[in-house]
Write a sequence for this structure.
């Protein structure tokens, strides 16, 4: 084998691709194809991806999967233990806990996705402007980020929802306002590095406008960071929504929410612990699945790391 062939094989092995000398088949592929290949090698991340897909399907087909109406009350069966009729038992109003957990998946995933999209849009825009223009623009945005970072997210979100009122739309606003700062900080740092690259200097010298530079050269090169940030923001938003609901500041009853289920079940945690344990497990599994999947995406999308 020549030195050039040996160097190519080493490059292939370092990037987690099949080795042609060991019977593997190598073909020229894109960055995201290689990233998908590295992600598929991460067994734990793939299991968590399967859990996330299962949660999404549960939210979509909740009316078909739910054995009962989540808001149907039967006081004769209140605080019933798990049984064949009610696999996870019933709550203080005799409502089926399994049905409420299934419908609560809709609220949790909706909050996670919508809030993450708000964080992404605000964070990418503000971070790109701060990193590219610098000067007073960077100073104003950076000081705003520092002010938001000075307050605990749950305290700031609780203040906003108390002022605006309890509704799902207001939760979107509250969590979106408190969550974009971290995304903006990451994008700002990456844009400051990218704008010093040769290709950006060449584009500027050729007469490219600031809008063209940001939208065509800088943001596209931050896609991997954006994907990882979104995957991490989803579980954070789900946990914040559950915390607000547990404090009585979430969605209004009788809408099913995992956090509100734990809030109303806290009085019975000693006598009937299953009423609060199962919604807590739903939150734990969902947050862990998204976090581990986010770690797997980070490892797969960063060429300097090996999945």
């Amino acid at each position: 084998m020549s030195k050039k062939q040996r160097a190519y094989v080493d490059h292939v092995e370092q990037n987690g691709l099949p080795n042609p000398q060991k019977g593997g088949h190598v073909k020229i592929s894109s960055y995201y194809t290689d990233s998908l290949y590295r992600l598929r090698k991460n067994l734990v991340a793939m299991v968590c991806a399967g859990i996330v897909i299962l949660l999404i399907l549960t939210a979509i087909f909740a009316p078909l999967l739910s054995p009962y109406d989540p808001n149907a009350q039967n006081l004769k069966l209140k605080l019933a233990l798990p049984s064949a009729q009610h696999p996870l038992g019933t709550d203080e109003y005799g409502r089926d806990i399994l049905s409420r957990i299934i419908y609560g998946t809709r609220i949790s995933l909706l909050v996670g996705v919508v809030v993450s999209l708000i964080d992404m849009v605000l964070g990418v825009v503000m971070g790109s402007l701060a990193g590219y223009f610098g000067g007073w623009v960077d100073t104003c945005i950076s000081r705003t980020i520092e002010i938001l970072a000075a307050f605990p997210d749950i305290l700031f979100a609780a203040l906003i929802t108390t002022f605006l009122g309890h509704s799902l739309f207001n939760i979107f606003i509250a969590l979106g306002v408190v969550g974009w700062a971290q995304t903006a900080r990451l994008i700002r740092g990456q844009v400051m590095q990218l704008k010093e690259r040769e290709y950006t200097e060449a584009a500027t010298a050729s007469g490219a406008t600031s809008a063209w530079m940001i939208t065509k050269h800088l943001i596209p090169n931050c896609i991997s960071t954006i994907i990882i940030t979104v995957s991490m923001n989803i579980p954070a938003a789900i946990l914040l929504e559950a915390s607000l609901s547990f404090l009585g500041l979430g969605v209004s009853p009788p809408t099913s929410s995992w956090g509100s289920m734990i809030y109303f079940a806290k009085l019975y945690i000693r006598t009937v612990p299953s009423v609060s344990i199962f919604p807590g497990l739903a939150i734990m599994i969902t947050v862990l699945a998204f976090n581990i999947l986010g770690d797997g995406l980070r490892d797969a999308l960063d060429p300097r790391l090996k999945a």
Observations:
- The chain has two domains: 1-41, 45-301.
- The radius of gyration is 24 Å.
